[in-house]
Amino acid sequence: MRLLLLVLIFALPFTHAFLFDATRGDFNEFQEDYVPGEKISGRYDSISGFPSRIDFTILDPSKAIVYQQHRHDGFFNVTAEKFGTFTFQFHAMQAFRAQRISFILYEKGIEEKTRTGIKTDSEMDKSLTEVAKDMDHILTMQSSIRVKERKRREASSILRSRLVLWAVFQLVIVVGVFVYHARYFSKLFKKRRQGV
Fold first, then answer.
1. What residues pair up with 17 in beta bridges, in sequence order?
2. What are phi and psi of 77, to 5 degrees?
3. CA–CA separation, 63 vs 85, rounded Å?
4. Contact indicator for 89, 20 with CB cutoff of 8 Å
């Protein structure tokens, strides 16, 4: 599943792709220039390590927040309204262990407003959106599999601990019975010797 996800990610057209390690308290920033009307779209994923919440923020050239979300992975799609350098910030607030983050910016697309709404300049943008939705579905399935696997491991660990406790309990019973019989037979032999 992870291999398929990486193939899908790196098979897509993109302007920039980043791979970095995030630990608790880290701030990672990436910048890209946009003009008004350009689409800012992409995604970030936790591909290794223990997934935990990442605070993801997009700042416009005036450092105003234009987009924000708090997840360990996600897809974003906004439109630039100003000319200049946009900043993409990652803040690992709850990462107790280092986790590797994949961050991809898709190719830019200009949007033009028409009477019928918003129309993109190419069919590629539509296909990118569809593929991104499919990737979101894949990531949701992957997260579900991780949760199920974690629950299975926890259940297995609980079962193992119960089996160990049961084995210790049985061992205590066996040792107790053995000690009781040993004392009984030792008293019996003493009586016989004294009788003889």
1. 104
2. -155, 100
3. 10
4. no
Residues 12-22: pLDDT tens digits?
444 567 777 77
Confirm if 29 and 89 have CB atoms less than 8 A apart.
yes
Spell out the domains of the chain, with CATH numbers in brackets: 2-150 (2.60.120.680)
- Could you tell me where the beta strands, DSSP code E, fall in 52-164? 54-59, 65-71, 74-79, 84-92, 99-106, 111-114, 117-120
In 3D, which of 6, 27, 4 has the Cα closest to residue 17? 6
CA–CA separation, 193 and 6 (whole Å): 82
The tens digit of pLDDT for each residue in 97-120 reads 667 788 888 876 655 444 344 444
What's the first-to-final CA gap in the chain, in angstroms? 81
Residues 33 and 119: their CA atoms lie apart, in Å, by 22
Residue with tokens 């591909």: 47
The model's pTM is: 0.49
pLDDT tens column, 140-196: 777 778 778 888 888 888 888 888 889 899 999 988 888 887 877 777 777 666 665
Tokens of 49: 């390590």
Contact 56, 69 (CB under 8 A): yes
